[in-house]
Amino acid sequence: MEISLREVSFAYKVGDRPLPVLESINVRVAPGDFLAITGSGGSGKSTLAMLMAGLLEPVAGRVILDGKPVRGRGKGKTHSAWHKVGMVFQQPEQQLFAETVADDVAFGPGNLGFTGSELETRVEEALRAVGLDPQKIGGHSPFRLSGGQQRRVAIAGVLAMDPEVLILDEPTAGLDPAGREQVLGVIRSFYRRPGKAVVLISHNMAEVAAMARQVIVLYQGRVALQGTPREIFRQGEALKTYGLIPPPLTRLMQELQRRGAPVSPEIFTLAEARAAILAWLGA
Amino acid sequence: MMVELGQYIPGTSCIHYLDPRAKLLGLFFYGLALLLAPTGITASLTGAAILPVIVLAGLAPSFIWRQLKPLLVFLVIIFFLQVALTPGEIIAAIGPLRITREGLDYGIMALARVFFLIVAASVLMATTDPLALADGLERLLRPGQRFGLPSVELALMLTLALRFVPTLLEEAERIMRAQVARGATFRGSQVKNLMPLIIPLFISAFRRAEGLAEAMEARAYRGGKGRTRMRELHFKPADYIFLLLAVLLVAGTAYYRLGFGS
Ligand SMILES: Nc1ncnc2c1ncn2[C@@H]1O[C@H](COP(=O)(O)OP(=O)(O)O)[C@@H](O)[C@H]1O
Ligand SMILES: [Mg+2]
User: Fold this and answer.
1) Label partner for A92 (CA 20 to 30 A): which of A127, A168, B72, B191?
2) Model-level pTM?
3) What is the value of ipTM here, to two decimals?
4) Dihedral through CA A240, CA A244, CA A247, CA A248, nearest 10?
């Protein structure tokens, strides 16, 4: 599944007036991609995510799925293609509603027409994929689980629809460190499966640096920067004007370099930093 | 937004600056005058008293029209029921439908009453900050406290409800989108189909209410007793003039009702 947005603009209607939010956005996500969308609050990240998931329709420009221009979810006739795009909203635990965890996870695939043992298999696989034991937790009320568990149940509800592209809007926001790691682990293992793509919305730069292959920085509804994490975080100063700061490790290395240490400023992982510092101290 | 009824339009007109109590009482008197007006023509003339208020408030005709539009069918039905069901002197007949002079007059009267009352209510809502409105209502209901009417609590409830309507609508939209992303359609009228929307909405409303209660307690709220207010209401000359005009309107229609006008 390939999602492509061409010259897409979007405006919310506030009263009678349009409130422009996105302008001339071009994005493409193909199997094997891991795209991070970042930017300060209000820059239009969530809106872009909803456009990519077919939950909003652009006011100008085109949304193209596998080469075919399409309308939004549930509009027109080409809606079934959208089933391959899964969207995990901000604080998805707020959409839980069923009496049991298993019933809630079954809601999506049930809407796709799955029943009986096939539905059960999907639910169990999805729960296992988010690290929850279907036997132990499937019959519980989702409202009695911890915040991190609730979020993983909500993600399982989307995974159970077996999407090819998974869009997640700030999936780790508001979780404790353990919950955050668990959710990132779920995303990583989804991405490792063949033919899958991930769009991760996040303003946690360390997360973006560690996970993404491509990064888009939004600023006031436009694409301000686009490239690999390396290319993006190299531009510490430019990032600041867009309301972002590079991940702490990168900042440390940039600061070391500024003070004369012979280390690369383009470092994002602990292992890289360790190697660079050891090489510098060893020399 | 889909709901525009009762929308507040911030502004600086003299109508905006009137005391909310004066406007509430004004609406009450206006409604009373409309009820007292004995004929279709007098009701229409009484109703027309709102026109200068609309002009002074700087409200566009299109705004008034949008407020009325959702209720149009209702207004038409009221009119035709009155016209069709009132016996009297027949002035025209379309098939089995006989239109009587009295029916036409009643129809116009009923239409004018409801029409102008809706217009006036939306002018009140459009020119008064909801918080000021709740404040004014509390003051007007205060005498009722002696008879056990919890006027302060009622006003607080009203204020909070008004404050959270847009929030809840936004929340509903958000949850609806999330469920659509999971393949929900919300088609059909079965309540069961609405559960994925209603349950999360209730949970979040309760959570919000709890948080709000805690935040209010943390800031030492303990009911209305002894509470002072930031915004004191004062009647100004303009308020007295406005009320005087409203009372005159009532007097005028009462005069006609009692038969002195004919
Ligand atoms: N439903 C809505 N109606 C009107 N304006 C909205 C709505 N949702 C978001 N906005 C506005 O659109 C802009 C972008 O919002 P959003 O996409 O949520 O940004 P981000 O996710 O980057 O914080 C903001 O200015 C926000 O106020
Ligand atoms: Mg957002």
Assistant:
1) B191
2) 0.79
3) 0.87
4) 60
